[in-house]
Amino acid sequence: MFCYRTLTRTPPVMSMAVNRSVVSSLFHRCKSLLNAQVVPHARCLSLGSFRLTDAVNPVNQVAEQKKRNEDVGQYTELVRDFLNPKDFYNALCTHGMDYFCGVPDSLLKDFCAYITTVTPKSRHVITSNEGQAIALAAGYHMATGKAGVVYLQNSGLGNIVNPLMSLAVSSVYSIPMLLLVGWRGEPGKRDEPQHMIQGQATPGILGLYVARKHMETTKGPYCLLVRRQNFLPFKLEKETGVYPLNREGALKVIVDSLKDRDVVVGTTGMLSRELFEYRVEKGHGHEKDFLTVGSMGHASAIALGIAQFRPKRQIFCLDGDGAALMHMGAFATIGQTEVPNFKHILINNGCHDSVGGQPTSALSDTFDFLGVAKACGYKTVIQAVQPEEISEAVTLMRTLEGPVLLEIKTNKGGRKDLGRPTRTPIQNKKDFMHFLAIDH
Ligand SMILES: Cc1ncc(C[n+]2csc(CCOP(=O)(O)OP(=O)(O)O)c2C)c(N)n1
C-alpha cells in the first residue's frame, strides 16, 4: 500500500490509501496526484509539543506574505508563505525522521536549502535521480529500522516507479519512507494570503503524525504532496565563485561561436530559458534550438537521435551537470554509438541551479566528467573555463569527429528576471523540424 496526503496551508486533507498493485497503476496515481481532489479532513490532529516560531507568527506572516507578493510582481510562481523550513525540519526529527535524500525541486528549495545547511553529510545525500533516493532510503531503513525522508519534484515520479513498486511497497519488501513531493502544475494555482487561522494550522506538521502512524502500521511508504507557497524563504549561503562566467555567460559565448546551420538541444531548467532570451537579444529565430523543458537528463539522447539521422549537421547538446548525472547511462550509449556529428557541451556549475542551487556530485574535485566520458568511448574530451577557451573549443569541436565532450566549469547563479519561452513546445518542435529538414 502506498499512501499520500497534501502538505498545504489550506485545511489538512484526508490521506488517501491507494491499493493498486501493478506498475501501470502508479502512472494513474501520478496523474491522480496531479488531479487529486482535496478532501477536507474530518478532524484536526494534535500538534503535541510543537512551538510556532516568530517566522510563522500569524500576524507577522500575513504582513511578510503581502510584501513578498508585491515584490515578485508578475512572477506569481515565486509567491509563497507559511511553513518555516526549520519548524518542519524539527518536526520531522521529532518524529524520528532525520535522514534525507532526493533530487531538489523549486517548490521545496527553501526546505532543501535548510536541510543542506543544517544536516551533516552522513545524513543527507543529494542523489543523481529520484529512484536512487528510494533505494538509498530502503538501505537506510534496513540498516537502522527507521524511515528516511525522500524529496523530489512530481516530474521525478516516473523515475521512482520501479524502485517504489518492486522494492519499497508493503507487498514486496515493505519499506517505510516519507516522500515529500513538490507539486508543480497544480491546477488553478494562486491563492491569496490566508488569514490568522492558517498560521495556527501548520497542516504539514499535523500531517506528520498521520504519516508516522501509517508507516508504523503498514511498514510501507507514505507521500506528502507539497503545494506551491508552502515554505518561508530560506537561502543557501552565498558562495564567491572562482570562475570567470556563470551558466548564462558561458551559454552566450557558445551561441556566439556556433554557425548558422548548427543544431542545438538545450537541457531542462534555466539554460533553455536563457537560450531562448539570447536568441531574441541577437535577433535570431528560435528554430535552431530544441528546448527540453521536461525530461531532465534526456537532452543528450534526444540530440543523439537527431545526430544519427542528420549526419550532415553539427548537433550540439547543451547539458547541465545535474541533468547529466541523472541519466549518466546516456554517456555509455553515446560513447558506443557511431555519431561523428554529436557534440556534447556540459555546463558544470556544480549545482542544481534552476531549482535553488543545491550541490551536485559534480561539484567535488574528485568527480571527473571528462574521465567518465572517456571511459564510455567519447573520442575527445575537452575542458574550458575562460571565454576565449570556450570559444576556441566550440570552434574546434565542430571539426572533430564525435562524440566529443566539452565541459565548461562555471559559477552558480543566474538572473532573477529571466523570462519563459513565449513559443509553445509544439511550435518549438515544428520550427525545429523545419530547420532540421534543411541540408540533411
Ligand atoms: C525528473 C526530474 N526531476 C527533477 C526536476 C526538477 N529540476 C528541473 S531543473 C533541475 C536542476 C538541473 O540541474 P543542472 O542540470 O545542473 O542545471 P542547472 O540548473 O544547474 O543549470 C531540477 C532538479 C525535473 N524537471 N525532472
Would you kindly provide a written description of the structure presented here, covering whatever features stand out?
With 440 residues, this protein is of the alpha/beta class. The chain contains 16 helices and 15 strands. It has a 7-stranded mixed β-sheet, sandwiched between helices. Strands 9-8-10-11-15-14 form a 6-stranded parallel β-sheet, sandwiched between helices. The longest helix has 16 residues. About 14% of the residues have low confidence. It binds thiamine diphosphate (TPP).
In round numbers, the mean pLDDT is: 82
Secondary structural class: alpha/beta
Which range does the strand content fall in?
Answer: 15-25%
Share of helix, binned: 40-55%
Largest sheet composition? 7 strands, mixed
Number of helices: 16
What is the global morphology? Answer: globular
**Low-confidence runs (pLDDT<50, min 5 residues)?**
9-56, 190-203
Cα distance, first to last residue? 52 Å
| Rg | 23 Å
Count of distinct strands: 15
Placed side by side, the strands forming the largest sheet appear as 2-1-7-6-5-3-4
Bound molecules: thiamine diphosphate
Pfam family, one: TPP_enzyme_N
Organism: Desmophyllum pertusum
Catalytic activity: (2R)-hydroxyhexadecanoyl-CoA = pentadecanal + formyl-CoA
InterPro entries: THDP-binding, Thiamin_PyroP_enz_TPP-bd_dom, TPP-bd_CS, TPP_dependent_decarboxylase, TPP_enzyme_TPP-bd
